[in-house]
Amino acid sequence: METQSQYELLHAEGSATPIKGWVRGVPLEDQAHRQLQNIAALPFVGPWVAVMPDVHLGKGATVGSVVPTRGAIIPAAVGVDIGCGMAAVRTTLSAKDLPDNLAQLRSSIERGVPVGNGRGGDHHRMPASVETRLGASGLYERLEAIKAKHRRIRTDKLDKQLGTLGGGNHFIEICLDETDAVWVMLHSGSRGTGNLIGTYFIELAREQLAHRVLGFHLPDKDLAFFMEGEPLFDDYVEAVSWAQDYARHNREAMMARVLDDMRHRLPKFQLDKLAVNCHHNYVQRETHGGESLLVTRKGAVSAREGELGIIPGSMGTRSYIVRGKGNPESFHSCSHGAGRVMSRTAARQSITLSQHREATAHVECRKDAGVIDESPAAYKSIDAVMAAQTDLVEVVHTLRQVLCVKG
């Protein structure tokens, strides 16, 4: 039986391009709504824009949006954390196999996987297994080809950051599902190299505006674009594809390191066949309604019929393994998480340490001021977000975290 679509039509002022939003029961800030209207006003955007329930203001494009384009691509819509996404795997361990005190396991994972931004989050020396994986991937050669054409892309971070977490909202978690099976789940992207690539091409797109004769108003310079047929369009597609592949390899390398550490500290276990590795900041060519489109998901996950995805909550709330329903109205997409309800600055100003500690009392995690902006109160209700998209996904497993590592 077909599920009735739950979206609301959010009309874009001055534009014939509709905005379809899965926002019932969740807040949609005025600034984010205006940003969506700016995007929908571009003549190459369409046939509509899809808005996920975790929507919030972003740079250039709105986080929690699916932006299809015809013959053009917007680097800032993809952003600088290119290929950021999630990975999760179920193990044969159960809750009774975990130690009563998880502090040592958290410390061990933090030592085994470099965390945080800056030099402290880099490798001093790559493990042999990671180095072998990187050498066989072809990523080195592909990056060198990109750098040969764009010499302003200077990076020595590739071999220092594969298999590292980063900072911000990136995390590693040990979770339990509804049967008390142990899962490992993590969130990260293309790290410093992807950031450099994203920043560079966003700047190039802005520079190109000075040489364009536009027959329309561009309301935000961060919506600068490349047109199909231009050399920079092809160069960006090549670079963004590289960063997306690197992000996937990064999550695989991190997962291997976490599981290796667990094998040294926990009873013997095997990996279940159920594993997921999905992007939620990326662009790719897809066919929808018989039309070839460039689909940018900025904070959204592919949810084709039968496709598995991950929707995390926050440091103190549930996360979900979901199966897509292939809803064409959302371009076969769903939310990428709970979505922020307040900025990082606002969170640091309004959430107290005691509130953060209370909200994460059931989780072995950092309880210090450095993660206040990631506290559960900074995010929307994951229950409301999931309720707003029952026509996009079905829940396969509900996960509750017992350990969380933050950068």
UniProtKB/TrEMBL annotation:
Q: Which residues form a coiled coil?
A: none
Protein's UniProt keywords contain GTP-binding:
yes
Q: Name one Pfam family in it.
A: RtcB
Q: Where are the transmembrane segments?
A: none
Q: Which cofactor does it need?
A: Mn(2+)
Source organism per UniProt: Dyella nitratireducens
Keyword set, alphabetical order: GTP-binding, Ligase, Manganese, Metal-binding, Nucleotide-binding, RNA repair
Question: Which reactions fall under this protein's catalytic activity?
Answer: a 3'-end 3'-phospho-ribonucleotide-RNA + a 5'-end dephospho-ribonucleoside-RNA + GTP = a ribonucleotidyl-ribonucleotide-RNA + GMP + diphosphate
Q: What's the EC number here?
A: 6.5.1.8
Say if the entry is tagged with keyword Manganese. Answer: yes
Task: Write one Gene Ontology MF term.
Answer: ligase activity
Main EC class the enzyme belongs to: ligase
Name it: 3'-phosphate/5'-hydroxy nucleic acid ligase
